[in-house]
Amino acid sequence: MTALAAIGITLATFGFMEFWAWFMHKFVQHGPLWVLHRSHHVRHPHPVERNDLFFIIYGGISAALFITGDNGGRWWFWVGVGIAAYGTVYFFVHDVLIHGRLRFWKKSDNTYLRALNMAHKTHHKTTGRDGSAEFGLLWVSPKYLALARQQAQKRKTRTGELAK
């Protein structure tokens, strides 16, 4: 396997995982597997929730692809790398940044990250299985990007006025 092919498979898998995560979230987690995902939509004092089983499932798939992938000699090893990379980004963006499950990342002034946060908060406005919107993770609707830009501009204007 060439390095270029390995990188291509990894990046393609990472990109596909954004679609897959959206699809699974909308049609499976808010569908037949709501019994697991529901724990993510209700407030609770526990550090772990049933929804965390999805990390174990995808981690297991990725591990199986690593183990059977001949140390990078088989194409599916690199699919496992792409899944693991997406899972890592998902964890840091979703669990650390958005939900603050590990409190080492402060709120960001980055427009994209603020837009992601707004979209996710829109998703969590409903606590039930039905009626949610915004099921993706990394792709953000242009309306949230525009709103985040407007808020950033207002903050700059206010900061400029305070400095006078």
Taking the alpha carbons of the first and last residues, their distance comes to: 61 Å
Q: Based on CA inertia axes, which overall geometry fits?
A: globular
Strand content: under 5%
Helical amount = 55-70%
Q: How many beta-strand runs?
A: 0
Outline the low-pLDDT stretches.
Answer: none
Count of DSSP-assigned helices = 6
Helix and strand composition category: mainly alpha
Largest sheet: none
Question: Which radius of gyration do the C-alpha atoms yield?
Answer: 19 Å
Order of helix and strand elements from N to C terminus: HHHHHH
- Average pLDDT score: 88
Task: Describe it.
- With 164 residues, the protein is mainly alpha-helical.
- Helix content is 65%, strand content 0%.
- The radius of gyration is 19 Å and the shape is globular.
- The model has no long low-confidence stretch (mean pLDDT 88).
Task: List its traits.
164 residues, mainly alpha
Outline the secondary-structure elements.
Layout: H1 3-29, H2 34-37, H3 53-68, H4 75-98, H5 111-123, H6 142-163
Helix pairs in contact: 1-4, 3-4, 5-6
Short overview:
This protein is mostly helical and 164 residues long.
